[in-house]
Amino acid sequence: MTALPAFPDGQGLRERKKARTRASLREHALRLIREQGYHATTVEQIAAAAEVSPSTFFRYYPTKEDVILQDDLDVRVFEAMERQPPDVSPLAAIRAAFREGFASLTPQEWDELKLTSELTMTVPEIRARSLDEFNRTIRKTCQALAKRTGRDQDDIAVRTFTGAVFGIIMTVTMYGEPGEHVIGADMFQRIDEGLALLAAGLPL
Predict the structure, then answer these.
(1) Is the pTM of this model over 0.85?
(2) Which of 17, 73, 190, 194 is least buried, going by the fewest C-beta atoms within 10 A?
(3) Between residues 57 and 203, which one has the greater pLDDT?
(4) Domains in the chain, CATH or no CATH each
(5) Do residues 70 and 130 lie in contact, with contact meaning Cβ atoms separated by under 8 Å?
(6) How many Å apart are CA 83 and CA 97, to the nearest integer?
(7) Long-range contacts of 22-29 (CB under 8 A, 24+ apart)
(8) 105: alpha, beta or left, given left = phi > 0 and alpha = psi -120 to 50?
């Protein structure tokens, strides 16, 4: 069973209930998909397992694909980035935040990440939707970098820098034939190696 999310001090009961509902929907979705496959699992089945209505499901996840793609790893990474000292370079802050975020994953969360990554690579609908999720995360990264550097999030330097970072991530995680890659610590090591090359000016 997925552990209940941790809540910051002072978070209201309403927010806690929403977070628990969201976590429950994802937990049951992944369980059902493991048991019967992605296409055989319906939103109605997921909602029933979580004891909510299908309309409630769609308040938390716009599509069935989103329940696969949306976890809280990016939240952890952005929070870790916020904690990096202000004198650390943007790229060093990103690398440190990635390391902290990945190190926070429990064995169960690694298993979930492996499942969702496999689904992303092998199910066309999820693979297509993942580009929207990448775009959302790219925009959030631009916002975080703009805040850190004092620039506008639409500044071409901010957008180009972010594009370079995510180009590395996508090349490591999505390059090749569907199902070719297996998520693990070695994959995240390769991402960090790619970011180190970026820091060195991309020597080739």
Answers:
(1) no
(2) 17
(3) 57
(4) 13-61 (1.10.10.60), 67-199 (1.10.357.10)
(5) no
(6) 8
(7) 22/60, 24/50, 25/50, 25/52, 25/57, 25/60, 25/61, 25/67, 26/2, 26/67, 26/70, 26/71, 27/1, 27/2, 29/64, 29/67, 29/68
(8) beta
